[in-house]
Amino acid sequence: MALSKRITGLTGGGSDGWDVYYKAKEMMDAGEDVAMLTIGEHDIGTDDSILDAMHAATKAGHVGYSMFNGNLNLRETVAERVTARTGVATTPDNVLVVPGGQAGLFAAHHAACDEGDRALYIDPFYATYPGTIRAVGAQDVAVAARPERMFQPAPADIAAAAAEGAKSLLINTPNNPTGAVYGRETLEGIARVCQEHDMWLISDEVYDTQLWEGDHLSPRMLDGMAERTLVIGSLSKSHAMTGSRIGWVVGPEEAISHMGNLSTHTTYGVAGFVQEAACYALAKGDAFEAQVAAPFRRRRDLVLGLLEGQDVVRPIPAQGAMFVMLDVRATGLSGEEFALRLLDRHKVAVMPGESFGRAAAGHVRVALTVADDRLGEALARLVEMASDLAGVAA
Fold first, then answer.
1. What stretch of H or E contains 26?
2. What is the reported pTM?
3. Cα(351)–Cα(27) distance, rounded to whole angstroms?
4. How confident is the model over 185-227, as pLDDT tens digits?
5. How many domains, in total, are found in the chain?
């Protein structure tokens, strides 16, 4: 029996760019000691108190069906959080609870796009973006953010792509994989393009608590944007709850209502005990979120310090998120070639920039997700190999 073109075409064919990760996992399974700097997974588990709250919620009976669009107490909690942080009045009717940010991206694109519509996104991109767009039957169209602009997207480039027709634009700030935080000028330019071309803006803000430089500005705060912006949020990064699969979409009431209908026909809601744990986690406040983020700030500074005094491996100034993007083009290798050689020779696993699109070719992404001393050792090996390839002293 033939499978649908939509399901077989999700990845676009060819390599999905994760060959280095798969090879590193195989080496680790075989007992080799590999410094795994690939995946954005905290090296701490979910806090015990959150797990205790989740367990208590199961014992209290929150194990049956939940509200398909999210239980009222969690939607109220998220609405209060968003209002306090952005100054944009937000009610529970503006909030849809979803099983993680990925489900939010899927729902948002369903709300914004019909079959065959063009949906824009910024390259470099998180790996699931193109497939998510294809999954709703839309055409995925990448708009490059160039390294010479520190991966800040140029509104003029977005406008050029939108001029050919587009229904939505997906952005991510703080950005995975580059660590770029979009400034006000960039976001105001993006807002103008969305308004001029009557596009939805889908803003992935799951790294909003991991901010090292500048300010996080949600585009929903800009004039005329609340009615055309869908914001994706999650507790995965802010509270180290990746496996709990809990997040939300914030947007106009009508859009959220229809996306609630989508939840009824897809996920059928999120487990009640997870929602109760999410309420507890959010109540722990800013200090707890800063505690979860602190190791990544420290390790980002560690990496930038280790790279001083040489000009072969050039970091993109990581302003946020749990990664540092490194320009290794001086070695003469592609990002994928460099990453594979680093893994084979030095047992250090990093993600090739090409895994995240064409704009990051010749770069590698380092996840700041191992202990400081191990991260330092891995970076020293990386710089040594890069210097040897470039023919200069490390």
1. helix 19-29
2. 0.96
3. 16
4. 999 999 999 999 999 999 999 999 999 999 999 999 999 999 9
5. 2
CA torsion sign, 27 to 31 to 37 to 38? positive
- For residue 11, what pLDDT band results from cuts at 50, 70 and 90? confident
Residue 21, domain CATH: 3.90.1150.10
Q: What whole-number distance in Å separates Cα of residue 28 and Cα of residue 25?
A: 5
Residue 208, domain extent: 64-284
How far is Cα of residue 352 from the mean position of the Cα atoms in its chain? Answer: 16
Q: Are residues 127 and 247 in the same domain?
A: yes
Q: Is residue 343 part of a domain?
A: yes
Residue-wise pLDDT tens digits, 273-305: 999 999 999 999 999 999 999 999 999 999 999
- Quick one: 286 exposed, middle or buried, by C-beta within 10 A (0-12, 13-18, 19+)? exposed
Single residue among 284, 308, 325 that ends a domain in this structure: 284
How far is C-alpha 151 from the chain's CA centre? 15
User: What amino acid occupies position 368?
Assistant: L
Q: Residue 53: inside a domain, yes or no? A: no
On whether residue 192 sits in a domain, the answer given is yes
pLDDT at 265 over 60: yes
Query: 234: which strand partners?
Result: 247
DSSP annotation of 115: T
Structure tokens at 4: 């649908």
